[in-house]
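Why predict the complex rather than its parts? Because the way molecules touch one another can change local conformation, and only a joint prediction can capture that. The input here totals 587 residues.
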Amino acid sequence: MNFHVGAPAVKIAVCIKRTPDSESRFRIAASGAAIDEAGLKFDMDDFAGYAVEAALQLNEKAGGGETVVYALGPDSVQESLRKAMSMGADRAVQLKTDTVPADGIAVAKALAAELKSGGFDLILFGKHAFDSSAGVVGTAVAELLGLPGVTAASQLSVAGGKGAARRELEGAAELVEFPLPAIVTIDEGVARPRYPSLKGIMAAKKKPLESKPAQLGPVRVTVQRAELPPERPAGRILGEGAAAVPELVRLLQTEAKVL
Amino acid sequence: MANVLVFAETRGGDVRKVALEAVTAARALADATGGGEVHAILAGPAGVASRAQQLGQYGADLVLVAESPALAQFARESLAATVADRTKAGAYRAVVLGFSAQGRDLGPRVAARLDAPIASDVTEISAAGDRMTVKHPGYANKVMLTLSITGSPVVLSVRPSAFTAKESPRNARVETLQLSPAGGATVTVTQVVEGAKGRPDLGEASIIVSGGRGLKAAENFKLIEDLADAFGNAAVGATRAVTDDGWRPHSDQIGQTGRQVSPQLYVAVGISGAIQHLAGMRTSKTIVAINKDKEAPIFKVADYGIVGDVLEVVPALTAAVKDARKGH
Ligand SMILES: Cc1cc2nc3c(=O)[nH]c(=O)nc-3n(C[C@H](O)[C@H](O)[C@H](O)COP(=O)(O)OP(=O)(O)OC[C@H]3O[C@@H](n4cnc5c(N)ncnc54)[C@H](O)[C@@H]3O)c2cc1C
Ligand SMILES: Nc1ncnc2c1ncn2[C@@H]1O[C@H](COP(=O)(O)O)[C@@H](O)[C@H]1O
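Output of the joint prediction:
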């Protein structure tokens, strides 16, 4: 992330989802409609991690402001909220549900209802969550709250009541400006999420974590089946060095038929 | 019988490939649910109307044209309002868009405005009664999810290249569509920074040549460019190691946190095959790997591998591909 030095203090909310570690090997649960969670490591979703880092850097550059983290889900999400506080977020709110629905609009509505009266200058989301790989919640909240919404920003700065961001498009990039308050979903940018320091972890234990029931409406999208994609058939090594090139070209012509 | 609405995205006044794929997906859905009509919104600056029959060629019965100078830029809020208003007016079963930069932005907005369920990045669609069933690769392509969706309309964004654009010609009726106002504070585009000219987008290319840290230096990406040129209309991709080092722009990154692609041919040059890179390209039809380490994980997913130094193998491959294509 690139930030203007001497930026004004802003109040920022960051919504984070708790997802399994993306490097895990997955198995399917007995129900056939979910992954088997046994033995998996969980953490906040990758892009939300970038969003937390972006918020903390904005506050640090400004020398003030506040970062509040939100997660909708069962009590296990408190672990991710604590982690965000150990990175430096000031406080956390859990919107409690039994499970996290696969319905992005339902999640967005519950978050929007809570965030509406928070008085935030910026509300940040990940570009998409690892598990749903959907990219719905953040941009939907922008529309629900009638706020300007920037989808997939790789750079973000704030100055004089306005925000500026860069978005990577297909073969191009777009620079945008928008008034605050606003919603931004965060793409991978320059900054990686920091690791919590020991001091941060100790401090996070004393930071406020509020838990309240989520206002979850009807859920219309459910996972009916989860399957592991077919393994790619084992490939073959054709040979070594430039000597193998003619065979490769022959196979690209006759077998793969791409030449 | 149910009608289906498509947002047929344009860029620089041209209909994008993913828009034709969205029309194809919509056509199939309409036909499968009793033969409803496909209506396509074609929005852009003056002149875009001339593309209407292209959508008819792929199965649109009605093309709704919105021309406005405001659409020289991607007017996200106004377009979302326009698509949502039309959906309400027309009582559609589904709204179909591409899971492209535009569709990722518009889809959730349209769904939120309509309070409609949405499924992103879908690769298969079927409908029975009041239930829609779609396939969507979740967990960064590691788990295939089948989602069941109730309610109508449903917003669906289709994964680029998952639906092959198929002609289903008809003489489309053409109507003018009024843009709805954005209503509220908006995001202003101040500048568009164009990337490499003359190459197809990663999401649309049928051949991608990708380079990793094994290329050793930014200058050596010239070898990748040359190989892409030899193939003809190929796109160039990169690993995160390479975009982190600034050898290539972030927009070229393929993988879990970059672009997800499935071309006919993916050539991985000097790429180790980290799990996060594989997440972005493992669904490619044919994968070729060139790496000096025969134990590199990329060889586990590659159909064809060559163990060797990129500086030796790539120029030889470039020359051989040029020769092979001349022979045609
Ligand atoms: C949360 C997260 C998200 C990530 N997202 C992505 C992503 O979206 N995309 C992505 O690509 N990565 C991503 N990564 C990074 C990923 O883990 C790897 O670090 C990265 O893909 C490695 O890039 P590489 O293959 O270019 O480099 P390396 O792993 O360093 O591999 C270089 C390869 O080049 C070979 N080589 C060296 N010299 C030569 C030569 N002269 N000739 C031939 N071969 C040679 C080596 O044998 C080696 O296999 C992510 C990581 C994390 C933690
Ligand atoms: N249950 C949740 N609680 C808090 N934030 C969420 C939740 N689900 C999604 N988000 C946020 O929305 C982003 C996009 O999620 P998705 O639309 O599911 O891809 C995530 O990166 C999070 O920032």
